[in-house]
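Standup notes
- DV: blocked on the single-chain target, sequence here:
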Amino acid sequence: MQKRVARFTVLALLLAGMASASFVLITIERRSISSVTVATQGLDDVARNYLWSELDEVARVRWIALGVVAAILVIGLFALAPVSQVPSLPDPPIALSPTIATPPAESAPELPQPRQPHRGPDLTSVALLCTELSRVAATDSLPSLLGRSAAALDASGLILWVGAGDRLLPVLAHGYPAETISRLAPVTRADDNAAATAWRTGERVILSSTNDSGAAIVIPVLGIDTCLGVLAFEVPDGREHDAATHAVGAIIAAQLATIVPTASTERATEPEESGPVEPEHESRVQSA
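- DV (later): unblocked, structure below
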């Protein structure tokens, strides 16, 4: 409001100054014409005409100066006049995408994969195997049953040792070449190996793996009042302490106890091998 009052005040002063200047110029012009008319009464026509032409030139210059002042006044008026500012339109709102940007998921550190637990033995197949072992009347079917026993125990090799007096003889085998079994010497009760220990004590013997041989388990085959022999089999490293493997081995050994007398009578001098496989460590076979 104060700025508007100041602008109108300046405009009024300029108009008043222009009007005053115009009035002064007109008054001076009139007086000059009157004075010149009186002064030129005694002159001839030539001198009078020359004097009037000079006066006209001076008057023209005056009016030109007055026009310049008026133009400056008009320019000042436009400069002082308030300029109406056109309100600027607001920027259109930015359309947001309906999808919400999600920060990139940080890659989780890879955790070591846990070792897959060993699947336990198939008890159904073990029960069927024991049923067929209990019905054996002759040793002809023993090699195939011994192979199924090795599969149930996840054993790479299996030997049934049967006692004959003071010696243990390798009667049946699975997983070893016939040459390896034929080179096995009989085991006596006083020998310092796993088979003799299990036969002498009637207790299970566990052999851990070494650089030269794998892990093995030796389970006694117990009769009514004596140990009839031992069942020795080699297992993968770490399986020698598996409780389920021990239990299945004890079940098969108990079932073999019902047919050991027949096997020792018919095959004591001729070990049989159920199928050719890669030879294992002969030292561990002998100790088992």
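- Follow-up: The beta strands are 157-164, 167-174, 187-188, 205-207, 215-222, 227-235, 272-273.
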